[in-house]
Amino acid sequence: MNANMIPKTMIAMMMSMSAGGTPDFFFAIRFDYFSIFQGIKLVINHHLFYKIILTMITLKNVSKSFDSTQAVDDFTLDIEQGQVVGFLGPNGAGKSTTMRMITGFLAPDSGEIEINGINVEKDVFATKKLIGYLPENNPVYSDMIVQDFLSFTAAIRGVGATEADMKNIIQQTGISDVFYRPIGELSKGYRQRVGLAQAILHQPEILILDEPTEGLDPNQRVEIRNLIKEIGRERTVVLSTHVLQEVESTCDRVVIIDRGRLVTDSTIKALLSQAKGVKSLIVEIAGNKPITKLKSIAGVMSAERVSGAPRGRHRYKLTCATNKEIRPDIFLMAKDNDWILWELHQEKTSLEDVFRNLTVGGSHD
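Below the sequence we write its predicted structure tokens.
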């Protein structure tokens, strides 16, 4: 590595004591330079093990508007090699627009996007070689058989896919049973698999997946989710979805965007811990207009009706502080008012609760 390539070097050192009292030294060295390896972190500990982590995707103050609509607004983000990132937001928040800019299909109005240190606007062909992209509408040719479609995709990408390469792709995506069938005859689950196959055909370092399980049934969702986890083990993956359960089970990092702006960027564990100060209770009651009295219980922060109650019953979701126990108060209130208390339980904090709290009042198409 040429020293002239490294005009800026930032070194951070942290020292901690291990359980046995032995000091552990952690060095993080980040190099920023204009080359394909921009954003390297060299990590060394006292055992002299080290690893290099590349910043694969960088967005710097990126904005994009369509007429009077600001789709993306001063958006900044770094994604490192090997991360599986869930990209979330309400409809119209700017997720698909951001993905299209990352992949080079749209140009930003302002700001810069780099893929592995390469500026997308300056060399879009070089960056596209590093990216596998599955758009939301999965544009496959329905009149082609799967084999011809993948061969055609390899040809236009300039990839000389050998028989062994194709066999590996077929095995990875589980499309051997439909390899010689027309795409138009496939179920949506298999069409998504074919879309993933074309996205990884050129062995990209980055996968951009926009709503890959949209419109699939629960069994197909599980299959595609497991497939994404499998093919994402050695790649950087950005996954956009409205199914928050997929993010919890697939991703190790969550980025939430709303009205084109970054709302939060955190690990799943850290994000869920944000909601630990508040808990939710589900109450199902048969009685006369109980919600007004439930709201009057000390400690209740909100009460809203939820669906699913049988006829003649009322089902509510109550929120209160974690350190406040209101279940005895609900039980006594039901007794005093001659209500029948059919259900009372505390819900586990979910990513959906956090997402709603962060994006309430946001852009919903």
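The chain has eleven helices and 17 strands.
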